[in-house]
Amino acid sequence: MATMECKIVTLGEGRVGKTSLALKYVKNEFHKDEISTVNANYLTKLVQIPQGSVQLNIWDTAGQERFRAIASNYYRQAKGALIVYDITDRKSFDKVVSWIKELKSQAEKNIVIVVAGNKCDMEKERQINRPEALEFCRKMQIRHFDTSAKSGNGVEEMFMELASQIFEANKGELGQSGRNSRRGKITVEKTKHRENSGKKGGCC
Amino acid sequence: MSLNPPNRSEIYHRLSLVNIESEKYCKYIEQIEIDLTRTFPDIEYFTIGQGVDSMRRVLKAFVKYHYQLGYVQGMNYIVCALLWHTCEVDAFWLLVVIMDEYKLRENYLFRFPGLTKHCELTELLLSLYMPKLYSHFSNHFVMVQMFATDWYLTIFTSLVPIESSSWVFNSFFKDGWTFVYKFLMTLMERLEDQLLKKNDRIDMLSLIKPIELVSNDSKKFLTSLQKRRETLTWEKLIESSNKKNIDKRHIENFLQNYQMEIFVE
């Protein structure tokens, strides 16, 4: 069976737990004092879903405002995006809206977005009502997950859902190019040549 | 050092008395607070020790001194590394020198124009000195910016362990950005054989930026640079990169013809 390879990107305010979620999922590790991300981290994991397998290449980005100006360098060609907010921080939730808007207008047309309300182990300090978050995501037609990178709650499910939605959204391409691919592995990233020749500078 | 005035201690302490009330300033201060204890979480001095307060004071003073630039993530690493080796006042003024005289400031401006410049120049040098690796990178759409951004924003203080960072500073003060290019090329040379075997962009990127670096653990990375029967240290690595010969004319020519784009926020 062919493996679908795809790039996903983590987005969200600083210190909401983007790196922690990626690290928990890929390495099952949690560090209480995660270091701040400058630029990006690269993580990768092969996910088995009922329909096939997906290799998630995670580009984990920095959260500070200044880095936001170059975020498009990272989500370019991404098939999926994980937008993270911290349930104990109202401001981080407000930023989710603008990330969704930006992705819908700037990113790949069929990009799959999921939202994570992280740090759900800190229920007592919660600032965003669960129903509010759910209602918001329902309107946007985006799946919402309560996650805790600390306990691992919801992390596996979220990435599985992301992988299977990406698989569904891109399986057309898998069928077409899968026949020609070597080693049964194909790359779903859009024809790289065209993407790259027209653009100057920036990364990816 | 012209930017290191004789009354530098007084000026530094006066900066701490300056009061700024603006939304922009508050944002910077907020971000500094967030980053204080998560720059070197394994080093007590910077988590529960006096280093936290020193770091806060130096960064705050810098934001006041360079209000237009403000605080950007990455500066925290340089400040910690400086504080590890010198006193607070000197750390502050050395930061100013690095930013202004050595133009690290350009890297931190909106949309990081200096970073783009340095990365493009690095790519030129790779194409001249390591053509095989360069074309391998191009074929797989690996760009220097994808892996060198934090290294170039922090002049490698986010990579090199803090106790060895004095070697980084010494080389940087002596050779400026040429040291940075040389050091990057040294790393690439040592990874070249492994990189040429990889045919997947993410595999290459995670070889250059292994997951352990996410938690400041550069030991495994250093091991991956090691040749057979060699015991490598960061000091040796820096020393060997200083011995590297690159024709400075390539750099001068590039910079002469380069027009940096400055963006307005």
> Which CATH first-tier class of chain A would you pick?
Alpha Beta
Helix-strand category of chain B? mainly alpha
Looking at CATH, which topology of the largest domain in chain B would you report? Cyclin A, domain 1
- For this entry, what is the oligomeric state of its chains? heterodimer
Kindly report the average pLDDT value of chain A. Answer: 87
Task: State the distance separating the first and last CA atoms of chain A.
Answer: 28 Å
Please summarize what this structure is:
Chain A has 204 residues and is α/β, with parallel strands linked by helices. Chain A has helices spanning 18-27, 65-68, 71-75, 90-106, 130-140, 155-178, 192-198, and strands at 3-11, 40-49, 52-61, 80-86, 112-118, 143-146, 185-187. In chain A, strands 1, 2, 3, 4, 5, 6 and 7 form a seven-stranded mixed beta sheet that branches.
Keywords:
heterodimer; A: 204 residues; alpha/beta; Rossmann fold; 7 helices; B: mainly alpha; Helicase, Ruva Protein, domain 3; Cyclin A, domain 1; 15 helices; globular
Written description of the protein model:
The complex is a heterodimer of chains A (204) and B (265). Chain A has 204 residues and is an alpha/beta fold. Chain A contains 7 helices and 7 strands, in the order E-H-E-E-H-H-E-H-E-H-E-H-E-H. Chain A has one domain (3-173): P-loop containing nucleotide triphosphate hydrolases (Rossmann fold, 3-Layer(aba) Sandwich). In chain A, strands 1, 2, 3, 4, 5, 6 and 7 form a 7-stranded mixed sheet that branches. The two termini of chain B are 31 Å apart. Chain B folds into 2 domains: 8-101, Helicase, Ruva Protein, domain 3; 113-257, Ypt/Rab-GAP domain of gyp1p, domain 3 (Cyclin A, domain 1). The longest helix of chain B is centred in the last third of the chain and has 21 residues, at 177-197. In chain B, helix 11 packs across helix 14 (234-243). The mean pLDDT of chain B is 94. Chain B is globular.
